[in-house]
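sorry for the late reply, my laptop died twice this morning and i had to redo everyting from scratch. anyway the thing you sent over, i finally got around to it. pasting the sequence first so we're on the same page, its 241 residues, then the predicted structure underneath. double check i copied it right bc i was rushing
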Amino acid sequence: MLNILSSLGFRVGLMFVQIFDKHQLITKNLKSLNIYFRYFIYTITIVVFYLLLQISEAFFLNTINSYNLQPIVYSTVIAIGLIFKIIALSFIVGIVFLEFIYNQNIDQYLKAVEKKENYINKNQLQWWRFKNQKWYLRVAIYLGIFAFFFNLFLGSFLSFLATQTISIEQLNLNWIEFDSFMKQFIILFIISVALFEFIKVRPARKVQLKIPKFDFDKNVDNNADTNILSSSSNDDLKEKN
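ok and here's the structure:
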């Protein structure tokens, strides 16, 4: 149990260094201090940041409440403020976990992380790239795009009807025309998605699956060519399932 907590603390501490202290300015300065003085700094930092966070939050809410904002604008501003609050809380909590990494060789680990990031960038293995998404995520994205356009067309059509004074017969005719338009849109959307999937995404994904994952435990040569996509031996790699 203790090993699990130590491993978790080490990972959280490394995340803090990677996000807030990439040059290890905070880490190396705190490491040189006495442990009791470090804990004093942790306590002071947490208290000061917490008070500043509470004051800033109260000022922020009072400021935006003084304006007559639209609900969607108000919700967006609140969401942005919440993101900043989460980042601030992450800093407050994360700084304590630096205690788990002082006795570890984090320089070697950070070099491996940098190599991994370079490997991912060179070989276009970023998670956000569409070709790197699993099939169910791609389906969800396609459905989301379809739902967006469907609601857009339906909302526009209903708004148009709300401004018109028409008979029941004309209303039924308008619905029939809208139904015909939506059927054509659905067919066109399915064809477009199929062409995009089988001509663009599938071939690109097939190439990506041939690229081996970065081996974090292996000692990678600094001068080695990690750009698999530009390597002539790419076709010799075995495809991973």
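Residues 219-241 have pLDDT under 50 and may be disordered.
thats about all i looked at so far, will dig more tmrw
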